[in-house]
Amino acid sequence: MVTDTRPRFNPNAFAGSAAPLATALTFAIAEAMEERAERSGGRLPKPALSALDELANVVRRAGCRTGSATMAPRA
Known about the structure:
Elements: H1 11-15, H2 19-39, H3 64-70
């Protein structure tokens, strides 16, 4: 019987944590929405929802609470 002696691929060891990618993608989208809102007079033409409740488990960003508070809908 032939045994496979090649090392087994471990995706966690290869890529590590997804936190840096999730952080970069999330904040790139948020910044793009902020820029679009600025060009549109301070509001997005269509409301955007960012459901990021679980992302806080892996993402750390200074001022995140402030950013979410300032993006709240205006009455």
